[in-house]
Amino acid sequence: MLQYFDGYGYHGTSFEQTYRCYPASFIEKPQLESGDKIIMPPSALDRLASLHIDYPMLFELRNDAAERVSHCGVLEFIAEEGMIYMPYWMMENMLLQEGDITSQIQKLS
């Protein structure tokens, strides 16, 4: 597994981190359930900005244990550090439970 924002996940111009995932019902963002976007921590925005990434940002989420992959965008950067919030349908599709760890990679063009 990759590490949190302590430098071990750094790969030049790519972004790869692990987070604990929680459903959108944990925060007051009901619009999150009907889309394909997630909420990430502010440190992710800081890191992405320093990498001079392309917009729009597209992320690949992986659950390696279940061999599941999904793709998404980001709605906001307001999650607690080490966490992401995602639509429940996305968690179900990826076979993730509350608090499970997912690795996340930003796809660069």
Task: Chart the SSEs and their pairings.
Layout: E1 15-23, E2 37-39, H1 42-50, E3 59-63, E4 68-76, E5 83-86, H2 88-93, E6 101-106
Parallel strand pairs: 1-5, 2-4
Antiparallel strand pairs: 1-6, 3-4, 3-6
Describe the structure.
The radius of gyration is 13 Å and the shape is globular. It has a six-stranded mixed beta sheet with strand order 2-4-3-6-1-5. β3 and β4 form a beta hairpin. It is built from two helices and six strands, in the order ββαβββαβ. It has 109 residues and is an alpha/beta fold. It has a single domain, classed as Barwin-like endoglucanases, CATH 2.40.40.50.
- Model regions low in confidence, pLDDT < 50 over at least 5 residues: 1-11
Based on the coordinates given, report the CATH architecture.
Beta Barrel
Question: How is the biggest beta sheet arranged?
Answer: 6 strands, mixed
DSSP summary: helix tally: 2
The proportion of strand residues reads 25-35%
Question: Quick one: overall form?
Answer: globular
- Helix-residue proportion: 10-25%
Q: Assign the CATH topology.
A: Barwin-like endoglucanases
What's the CATH superfamily, by name? Ubiquitin fusion degradation protein UFD1, N-terminal domain
Radius of gyration: 13 Å
Structure classification: alpha/beta
User: How would you write the strand order of the largest sheet?
Assistant: 2-4-3-6-1-5
The number of E-state strands comes to: 6
The average pLDDT value, as a whole number, equals: 85
Secondary-structure element order, N to C? EEHEEEHE
- Number of domain modules: 1
Distance between the amino and carboxyl termini: 24 Å
What's the level 1 CATH class? Mainly Beta
Oligomer class: single chain
